[in-house]
């Protein structure tokens, strides 16, 4: 009886290998050959799952974006608006080793997405939906009967996105976890400003 292979699981394993290689050595480290070797596949077997490095990179990018979205959407619905906003902001910040590593992968792939319209569109779509969700949550947390479209709400959303992106960049320059206290303090101060 032939062995049953879970092809979706194999694709996920390949994506995890690509993430690991990107974290350790950057985009150039994730060659088809290095992925095949690290995944333990025979040469040519990778083509059965992904037809090119770009396809693996796109799947890796999508995987990290999906993980970020899952963190943001897995908040307890019984939280108060300010607690829900805090959880949403924390999900995008490099506050634990897993999110720091995911941020590193995204940063490496952002550069690659400049020359890849499909990846650039995925990232723009994420930023657009992230900003819209932030505006909804900020308006609810401020409790000032503001519309999510209010200019002050949009300014806060843009600040949070910029700080989260900057925090992920800064985390690349420091040992893993070195800046967590700073970012936690920023989030505390931000929530106080929004609640006032």
Automatic annotation (TrEMBL):
Residues 8-68 form the HTH tetR-type domain. It comes from the Bacteria. Keywords: DNA-binding, Repressor, Transcription, Transcription regulation. PANTHER family: HTH-TYPE TRANSCRIPTIONAL REGULATOR RUTR (PTHR30055), HTH-TYPE TRANSCRIPTIONAL REGULATOR UIDR (PTHR30055:SF223). It holds the Pfam family TetR_N. Residues 31-50 bind DNA. It comes from Kibdelosporangium persicum. This is HTH-type transcriptional regulator BetI.
């Amino acid at each position: 009886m032939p062995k049953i292979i879970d092809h979706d699981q194999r694709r996920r394993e390949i994506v995890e290998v690509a993430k690991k290689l990107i974290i350790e050595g950057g985009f150039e480290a994730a060659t088809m050959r290095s992925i095949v070797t690290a995944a333990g596949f025979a040469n040519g077997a990778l083509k059965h799952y992904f037809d090119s490095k770009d396809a693996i990179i796109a799947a890796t990018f999508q995987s990290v974006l999906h993980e970020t979205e899952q963190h943001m959407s897995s908040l307890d619905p019984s939280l108060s608006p300010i607690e829900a906003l805090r959880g949403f902001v924390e999900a995008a910040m490099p506050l634990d080793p897993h999110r720091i590593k995911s941020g590193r992968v995204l940063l490496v792939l952002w550069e690659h997405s400049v020359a890849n319209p499909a990846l650039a569109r995925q990232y723009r779509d994420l930023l657009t939906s992230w900003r819209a969700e932030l505006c909804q949550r900020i308006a609810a947390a401020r409790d000032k009967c503001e519309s999510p479209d209010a200019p002050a709400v949009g300014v806060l959303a843009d600040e949070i996105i910029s700080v989260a992106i900057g925090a992920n960049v800064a985390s690349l320059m420091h040992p893993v976890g070195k800046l967590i206290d700073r970012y936690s303090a920023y989030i505390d101060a931000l929530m106080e400003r929004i609640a006032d």
